[in-house]
Design goal:
The protein has 10 helices and 10 strands. It has 260 residues and is of the alpha/beta class. It has a domain of 85 residues: Rossmann fold (3-Layer(aba) Sandwich). Helix 3 crosses helix 5 and helix 3 packs parallel to helix 6. This is Amino acid/amide ABC transporter ATP-binding protein 1 (HAAT family).
C-alpha cells in the first residue's frame, strides 16, 4: 500500500445524502502534492458538494477525507483551514465595505487564529500587515490598496477573493468556478494569475470552460452523478470513451458550435 502522506488530498468511498437522495455516491480521488486538478462535470453532478465535504461545511454520510494523510472528515471548517486547506466559493466571499488591504489583512488574521491572547495578537499585527501587502502585490491590486472592495471591477473582486483564499498560506486550495462571469480576456489573465499565486501548492478548481481546463490542469477529475468517473492527464481524459460518452463529447461539441 502506498504511503498515505504521499497524497495531499484523498477521498475514499465518500458518500453524502440529503434526506433520502444520495448526491455523492462513493467518490474516490487521490491528489499528489503540487498537482493542479480541474474538476469538471455536468451541472448538478456534485462538484460543489464534494468541495463542501472536503472543506468541512458538510459532514459526509460515510467514507473518508484525508489531508496529507490525516483524517479531516467530520472536522469543523476552521479546523480544516488551520490544517492547511482553504477554499473559495462559487459566490464572492469578500467584505464589500472594507478596502482591498483590510480584506486581505482579515484573511491573514483569521488564519493566525482568534485563539491568541490580545497581547500576542498585537505583536502579530505587523506580520499580518506585511503579509497583506505581499498578497496585494501577488494579486496585482497594490495600486488599489485603499479602494473599497465593492468599488472594484468584477475581475478584481475575484482576484481579491483568491488573495483571501491563499492568505493563510494553505497548501491545498479549492476554487469553485473562479472564472465564472468573466470575459475571455479576463479569464485568460486570471488563469495566469491563479497559476502564479498557487505555484508549488495543490490546486483543485471547478471549471466549465474547456479551454481553461486544458490550459491549467495537470490532471482532470470528471464528476458525473456523484462519482469520480475518471482522474487522469488531460490527454487521457479527452481520449477516455467513458468520459466522452458521459460528458465531454457533448460539451466539446457544444463549445465548438459556439455554445456555453
Ligand atoms: N444542502 C443541500 N441540500 C439538498 N440538496 C443539495 C444541497 N446541496 C446540493 N444539493 C443537491 O446536490 C446536487 C449536486 O449539487 P452541486 O451544487 O454539488 O452540483 P455541481 O456539480 O456543483 O453543479 P454546478 O455545476 O451547477 O455548480 C444537486 O442536485 C443539488 O440540488
Ligand atoms: Mg457547483
Amino acid at each position: 500500500m502506498a504511503d498515505q502522506a504521499t497524497y495531499a488530498l484523498e477521498l475514499r468511498d465518500l458518500r453524502k445524502s440529503f434526506g433520502k437522495t444520495e448526491i455523492i455516491r462513493g467518490a474516490n480521488l487521490a491528489v499528489r502534492p503540487g498537482e493542479r486538478v480541474a474538476v469538471i462535470g455536468p451541472n448538478g453532478a456534485g462538484k460543489s458538494t464534494l468541495f463542501n465535504l472536503v472543506s468541512g461545511r458538510f459532514a459526509p454520510t460515510s467514507g473518508e477525507v484525508l489531508l496529507h494523510g490525516a483524517r479531516i472528515d467530520g472536522k469543523q471548517p476552521f479546523e480544516i483551514n488551520r490544517m492547511g486547506l482553504s477554499r473559495s466559493f462559487q459566490i464572492t466571499n469578500i467584505f464589500p465595505k472594507l478596502s482591498v488591504f483590510e480584506n486581505l489583512r482579515c484573511g491573514v488574521l483569521w488564519s493566525l487564529g482568534y485563539r491568541y491572547a490580545f497581547w500576542r495578537f498585537l505583536s502579530r499585527l505587523q506580520d499580518a500587515n506585511d503579509r497583506a501587502t505581499q498578497l496585494m502585490e501577488m494579486i496585482k491590486l497594490d495600486k488599489k490598496r485603499d479602494t473599497l472592495a465593492m468599488n472594484l471591477t468584477y475581475a478584481e473582486q475575484r482576484a481579491l477573493e483568491i488573495g483571501i483564499t491563499i492568505a493563510g498560506g494553505a497548501s491545498v486550495i479549492l476554487l469553485d468556478e473562479p472564472t465564472a462571469g468573466m470575459s475571455k480576456s479576463e479569464t485568460t489573465r486570471f488563469i495566469f494569475l491563479i497559476k502564479e499565486v498557487t505555484q508549488g501548492r495543490t490546486l483543485l478548481t471547478v471549471e466549465h470552460d474547456m479551454g481553461v481546463v486544458f490550459g491549467l490542469a495537470d490532471k482532470i477529475a470528471v464528476v458525473v452523478y456523484g462519482e469520480v468517473i475518471a482522474f487522469d492527464t488531460p490527454e487521457n481524459v479527452r481520449a477516455n470513451p467513458r468520459v466522452q460518452e458521459a460528458y465531454l463529447g457533448s460539451v466539446i461539441a457544444a463549445q465548438q458550435a459556439g455554445g456555453h
